Each structure stands twice: as structure tokens, then as C-alpha cells.
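User: Second chain of the day. Same drill as before.
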Amino acid sequence: VSRNFESTSYGQFAEGYFLTRKTMQHFWQMYVGDGVAPPYADLLAVEDLTGLPPATVITCGLDPLSSEGQIYSQRLAEAGVEVTALHAHGLLHGIWFMDATGRRAYQFGLDIAGALRRAAADATISTRFSPSI
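Assistant: Same format as last time:
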């Protein structure tokens, strides 16, 4: 699996928006190393997403990863996977740790907390994916 760093959002937000294309390329190299990446390393390269568990996909408008997250959400939905897509227009990647910077960042944190609360309360998810010891 090779990684494509040429999506629309990678082009628009390659530099100057906290997370950069160069940083993401570095992270990818650290993640997969010098060998061949395992198939699960890039979920956009997986042909069939059917049967995956419900997912929440969070994207930010000023993020090199935004296009990929939106495409992934769409592909999950097309595969019949229950997906909640949260998109924060005008916010940067990493805004979760910057909630004191303004009302929109704070609201973003509340939206994520709500999604996590709903997922934790969903008995089918918690029983289906509870770890066994």
C-alpha cells in the first residue's frame, strides 16, 4: 500500500495550517517503515468496507486530512456501515487540544463528547466490541 498525499485538502492545506503534508509524510514513514505497508494501514485503499463496525469520522475544514475523512465517511455509508460524520468548518487539525481558543473550538469538543457518549451508550456496540480478558 502506498500513500497518496495529493488529495484536494492536502493541496489546499499543505503548509500553514498546523498539520502539514510534510509532517504527514513523516508520520506515514514512521507508521509503515521501509517495508510494504500492511493492507489496513490505508483504509481508503481497501476495496470492500462492508461489515465494519459503526464509525464516527471527525474532520476539520482546515486540515490536510479533510478530503480523506470525507471520502472515507462516504465509502463507509455506501458499504452499509453506520457512520456519523462530524465536520468542523474553519477549524484546524488538533483543535481538540485548543478548546480554550474560542467558542467554535469549544463547541467542537462538545460535539465530539456527544458522539462518544452516544457510542458508549449504544449497547450493541459495547457488547459487540468489549474486550475479553
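The beta strands are 55-62, 83-92.

User: Great, on to the next one.
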